[in-house]
Amino acid sequence: MNRKHFSFLNNKKKYFFVALQVADDFAVVRNSNYKSIQGFIEEVIKSFSTAKEKYSMLVLKHHPMDRGYNHYGRFIAKLAKFYGIKDRVLYLHEVNNAKFIKNSCGAVVINSTIGFQILYYNIPIKVMGKAIYDQKGLTHQGCLDSFWENPQPVSKKLFNQLKNYLIQTCQIPGSFYGRDINELGTEENNVVIYK
């Protein structure tokens, strides 16, 4: 990626963010109609190529836990060229999710948990699989083709209601990849995690 691409990505609301998931993610296998991540990628690129707005870019981000197992660079480049948008598609690794989400004009996922972060930043999102947060008022309920032109906004109130419900009913502080829950300390300390 060259400087031109980076400067473009620093301009707010000029690109759509696509979060790729691990190839054998159970959520993809059981809660989507995709047989592969490639199928998702192709559907997104094909749809994006038909959008009337030609000023925006499509930024696909590789999942960090899939690194070393799958690489979609050649596949994405081939599709972007085939659909006539090779200069408007980027494939990135190891970037700051928060920055790219906050600067985007919308995001597309299958059903990744990054969807909660996207909603937290009040960024329109299109879910292509089944996700607990794929609800009217939170996500774009129209087809993918309509998302590029008129993404439905996120209701911050509804998102906060969902977030609080999940925290109170089925979530515990911590991370599967982070610190041991027993090291997190008192309830007062745990509140910080939810901010």
Key terms for this structure?
five-stranded parallel β-sheet; 195 residues; alpha/beta; 11% strand; single chain; 9 helices
Strands of the largest sheet, in order across it? 3-2-1-4-5
**Overall geometry:** globular
CA-based gyration radius: 17 Å
Beta-strand residue fraction: 5-15%
- Count of individual beta strands: 5
Main beta-sheet annotation? 5 strands, parallel
End-to-end Cα distance, whole Å, is 33 Å
What is the H/E order? HEHHEHEHEHEHHH
Could you give the topology of this structure?
Blueprint: H1 3-10, E1 15-19, H2 26-31, H3 37-49, E2 57-61, H4 73-82, E3 89-92, H5 97-103, E4 106-109, H6 114-120, E5 125-127, H7 144-149, H8 156-169, H9 187-191
Parallel strand pairs: 1-2, 1-4, 2-3, 4-5
Helix pairs in contact: 3-4
What can you tell me about this protein's structure?
The chain has a five-stranded parallel beta sheet, sandwiched between helices. It contains nine helices and five strands.
